[in-house]
Amino acid sequence: MIINNEKIGHKICEIRKMNRMTQVVFARKVHLTQQTLSRYENGRTPIPNEVIENIAREFNIPVNYFFEITIDGMTQDESMLVNYYRQIRPSVRESIVRLIKLMSEEFPEQ
Length: 110
What we know:
Blueprint: H1 5-18, H2 23-29, H3 34-41, H4 49-58, H5 64-67, H6 76-87, H7 90-106
Helix pairs in contact: 2-3
């Protein structure tokens, strides 16, 4: 498999934006400089595996998300949803499942 730095950089940028962080704050959290993070996000610099693993660990994201690998037939987005679901308090999970079920019935895939 060929690793595409631009695609991985885009994924890193998505994670940062989903967490509503600036490059400076995100870079500090994952022990990078803002300039290095910018180069990674723009695909200008190869991203070391250790950096990808660190970001995955810090944000509870499966490493396969960066490489567009599916696991057990799940897409990347499905895998991310499972990870986020696992982070939710058990008392809230039932409500989330009901909401998703309702949405799937209201807006089925075409």
